[in-house]
Amino acid sequence: QVQLVESGGGLVQAGGSLRLSCAASELTFSTYTMGWFRQAPAKEREFVAVTTWPGGSVYYGYSVKGRFTISRDNAKNTVYLQMNSLKPEDTAVYYCAARTGWATVSIQDYEYWGQGTQVTVSS
User: Fold this and answer.
1) Helix (H, G, I), strand (E, B), or coil: what is residue 53?
2) Is the CB of residue 112 less than 8 Å from the CB of residue 27?
3) Measured distance CA(32)–CA(113) in Å, rounded
4) For every one of its 123 residues, what pLDDT tens digit does the chain have, with 9 covering 90 and above?
5) Distance between CA atoms of 59 and 42, rounded to whole angstroms?
6) How far apart are CA 90 and CA 114, in angstroms?
7) How far is CA 91 from CA 12, 41, 43, in A?
8) How many CB atoms lie within 10 A of CB 65?
9) Residue 61: which residues within 8 A CB-CB, separation 6 or more?
10) 3-state secondary structure of 113
């Protein structure tokens, strides 16, 4: 059974940093495109970042570009999201997701999802 487990969320002041991790099990991690999404209260889930298979290309949502960095360690079956210069509007539950195939920002294209980790940015 495929599992994605996020960790690293928490409470941070505006301008601070956090690094999220997502550990995957029971899938051939290196062949999956891995994405990060987030959902704030009363808002729809939105795309944050994705790292593709093959090649490791990365793409970012407009609101996080230049502040967040996605990376993956295929040897550890883990994808990371380094978040810098955090803003209160980054407050959300952050989810990682996995899919076979190319990068996409569409939620419905992802086959597997983690349970999410809460990130709260105080002003």
Assistant:
1) coil
2) yes
3) 13
4) 999 999 999 999 999 999 999 999 988 888 899 999 999 999 999 999 999 976 679 999 999 999 999 999 989 999 999 999 999 999 999 999 999 988 899 999 999 999 999 999 999
5) 25
6) 19
7) 10, 9, 11
8) 10
9) 46, 47, 48, 49, 105
10) strand
Beta bridge pairs of residue 70: 81
Q: How far apart, in whole angstroms, are the C-alpha atoms of residue 18 and residue 92?
A: 13
DSSP state of 43: S
Do the beta carbons of residue 79 and residue 71 sit within 8 Å? yes
Of the candidates 17, 2, 31, 27, the residue with the CA atom closest to the CA atom of residue 80: 17
Which residue(s) pair with 40 in the sheet?
none
Token couple for 52: 């593709």
Prior bond to 54 cis, omega within 30? Answer: yes
- Candidates 7, 5, 16; CA nearest to 86 is 16
Q: Which residues contact 20 (CB under 8 A, 6 or more apart)?
A: 6, 7, 8, 9, 36, 80, 81, 83, 94, 96, 117, 119
Give CA 104 to chain center in angstroms.
13
Q: What share of the chain is helix, strand, coil (3-state, %, to 5)?
A: 5, 50, 40
